[in-house]
Specification:
alpha/beta, Arginase, Chain A, eight-stranded parallel β-sheet, 32% helix
Length: 290
């Protein structure tokens, strides 16, 4: 699969034209085949790109300008509609090629199951990695109504792959009783309701560690991000998520890739969700791509 020939659609603001020179590659994973409530996240990647065109290129949070980071928007991975297994295999193969070329992968979702093949590919390259997961939902189910390929399962799969002691979840406020029991008994880290405060306490323990970060937009309260498939009251503010991104940027962890998932634009006619998501992507580019 070629991802270095440029993309004919809309690209993230200030995307460079040269894949080979880019340190980071933005790519979309337009899949919502396994969602448990409302579909529509497959339209998230392109709407985030469109919203980015209204951004300022300068970040007062990072005191950096997008011209300082060389990144390439490769567009969306072409996924077979309605086929989760083949879609996940396609994503994993794509990421292996991207990582082999030394790129920082920055994915736009898509439902949260798309993070699973990415984590697999990153783990293959960095077997000592840790996972930082920001979400409203625990995502620790083994299956959903008998289906193991579900957007409610990626963190459980990650625990089984990299070890629960290397998984750190923040902002969790929804899940089955069994999921919370698993988190407690397995040795993984789970911070309920908040992100920035517990993250500040955990980051020193991850100093020098290679870390992949996955952010589900529904970690935000629906007041800040109504455009998502499974909105959950009681979430954090946009300000707190920006603070969390800054905390990671200013820490000694080595971020090796990231994704932002579950943006479903159809449920937010105000577009505040895609506007916020594009700002978070800007901050990730400026803060995590070294």
């Amino acid at each position: 699969m070629r991802f270095d020939e440029g993309y004919s659609g809309k690209v993230f603001i200030m995307s460079r034209p040269d894949f080979d020179e880019a340190k980071a590659v933005i790519y979309g994973m337009p899949m919502d085949w396994t969602v448990s409530f409302r579909p529509g996240s497959r339209f998230g990647p392109n709407r985030i790109r469109e919203a980015s065109l209204g951004l300022e290129e300068y970040s007062p949070y990072m005191d950096r300008h997008l011209e300082e980071v060389n990144y390439f928007d490769a567009g969306d991975i072409p996924l077979p509609f309605g086929n989760p297994k083949r879609s996940l295999d396609t994503i994993q193969d794509y990421l292996k090629q991207l990582l082999a070329k030394g790129k920082f992968p920055l994915g736009l979702g898509g439902e949260h199951l798309v993070s699973w093949p990415v984590i697999q590919a990153v783990y293959e390259k960095y077997p000592d990695m840790a996972l930082i997961h920001m979400d409203a939902h625990a995502d620790l189910r083994e299956e959903y109504e008998g289906e193991p390929l579900s957007h409610s399962t990626p963190v459980r799969k990650a625990c089984q792959l990299i070890g629960p002691e290397n998984v750190y979840s923040f902002g969790i406020r929804s899940g089955m009783r069994e999921e919370f029991a698993y988190a407690k008994d397995s040795g993984m880290y789970m911070a309920r309701y908040e992100v920035a405060k517990p993250l500040r306490e955990i980051l020193p323990k991850l100093s020098g560690k290679k870390v992949y970060v996955t952010i589900d937009i529904d970690v935000l309260d629906p007041a800040y991000a109504p455009g998502t498939g499974t909105a959950e009251a009681g979430g954090i503010s946009s300000k707190e998520l920006l603070e969390a991104i800054q905390l990671i940027a200013n820490s000694n962890v080595h971020v090796v890739g990231a994704d932002l998932v579950e943006v479903a634009p159809i449920y937010d006619p105000t577009e505040q969700t895609v506007i916020a998501a594009s700002k978070f992507i800007r901050e990730i580019l400026l803060g995590w791509v070294k």
